Amino acid sequence: MAWRRSITLRLTLLFALASTTVLVAVGALTGLVAERHFEEMDLGELRGKLELTRHALAQVHSAADLDALPQQLDAALIGHPALSVAVLDQAGRPLYATPDAYFPPSLTDRHYAAMSRPSNPVTWEHAGHIYWGIAAVVPTGLAGRSRFTVAIALDIRHRHEFIQTFEESLWALFIFGIAVSALLGWFAAHVGLAPVRRIALVAKGISARQLDDRLQLDTVPAELTDLAVSFNDMLARLAEAFQRLSDFSSDLAHELRAPIGNLMTQTQVALSKARSADEYREILSSNLEEYERLARMTADMLFLAQADRGLIVPQHDTVDLATELRQLSEFYEPLAEESGVTLTVRGAGTVTGDRLMLRRALGNLLSNALRYTGRGRTILASIAVRDDGGIAVAVENPGPEIPPNHLPHLFDRFYRADPSRTRGGNGSGSAGLGLAITKSIVAAHQGRISVTSADGVTRFEIVLPADDRVSAGRHEAE
To answer: Which of 458, 376, 367 is nearest to 417 (CA)?
Structure first.
């Protein structure tokens, strides 16, 4: 529905509803106060005339005074056309009545008049007029304590007409006020949501080629500051991810270009003239090496892609790390002897994980250490049990220090600290994926890997958690 989708419409309706509630409450209270005010004024006038009549009757001490009473009342009531007064004797006969005066019999009933209170007027209609009247039994000064019924009424038609006109005007003002409130509410919501529209505008302009736009935090309202900060952080992460993806694509193309170029060149040379079977065999053997290199790179990329998608699920084996390191040392022993490097393994420790994957990670570290260790030096692989029950495996090799600015990127794919981007120093043909694969394997085992390089020693350390944590991480992965 439209009102659910539009925040501006919802805020406008809520603002109009709130304004209507306030206006209705204020209008109802104003009307009530105005009506009470007029009632108090009319009741005061009725009481005043009743007291005037009561005083006039109290001055009656003789028949002559009684005969002169109508003239006195006429003189006292001059200038009050809306007032009706009647004075009735004990038999109900009128002693005095203003022109066109009409009182309901129930009001002039002597018993009712004796019991009624001047503060409780009676309302009635007569000849198109609305009256509001009171009655009372008033004594005179005549001998025998004669008492008369005095009835006084006020034509309140004008008051009713005024109240009706006032209410109609008030309702008109209500409608106008609601319309103005709705318009102001829409304007306020439209202006208030301007920062949100700016965020949407920036988001609309974002593309893979333009990730540099950021929201200006000093122009964003306080309520949207967290959203703007999160939005800018998201853009920064996207920019970093796109840059890494771009670098990855460039590195991948760079790595694939060399073996493919070699294959094309060798094939062109082979086809340039007729050759002997041994020459073709030699060319095919060289091509096979390049195919194997491409196959390894493809397998490594597939492994990393699966690791990124959380598809690498380690086996739940008991792995003796000392045994694995010693077997790897034996495997690399010929290469170490050729390079004049000694491999030493110390310590012991057992973890739960995938033996083949951990063997590959440790092999990558040893291969990397052999590549950068000078002749006559020693590579030390040590195992230590940590206080928290985890196992730390460190591979240290003496050799050229790695500049600090390269250390955070050593585990990135295709990254090499050597800016010339040549292959490994010993010509091993490394594609720069070994450390990235090692990091993925360690992460799949809920561990972490770090590197330091100082005082002529480069140290890679893998920390694997205790067995129960590895098992828990495995179950979560499953």
So the answer is: 458
For the stretch 431-459, pLDDT in tens is 678 898 999 999 989 899 999 999 999 99
Tokens of 372: 């950068």
Residue 351 pLDDT > 70: yes
pLDDT of residue 244: 75
Q: Which residue has the higher pLDDT, 201 or 392?
A: 392
Q: In this structure, are residues 295 and 246 in contact, taking their beta carbons and an 8 Å threshold?
A: no
Question: Which has the closest alpha carbon to 302: 436, 115, 146?
Answer: 436
Contact 397, 379 (CB under 8 A): yes
Question: From CA 45, how far away is CA 43, in angstroms rounded?
Answer: 5
Distance CA 215, CA 225 (A): 10
Q: Examine the pLDDT at 475 and tell me if it is beyond 70.
A: no
Supply 263's token pair. 């294959």
Using DSSP's 3-state secondary structure scheme, residue 453 falls into: strand
In contact, 372 and 346? CB cutoff 8 Å? no
Sign of the alpha-carbon torsion through 34, 36, 37, 38: positive
Cβ atoms of 470 and 446 within 8 Å: the answer is yes
Taking the alpha carbons of 262, 267, 270, 273 in that order, is the dihedral positive or negative?
Answer: negative
- Closest by alpha carbon to 139, among 28, 202, 258, 54? 54
Give the range among 84-88, 297-301, 329-333, 439-443 with minimum mean pLDDT: 297-301
Cα–Cα distance measured from residue 381 to residue 357, given in angstroms and rounded to the nearest whole number: 18
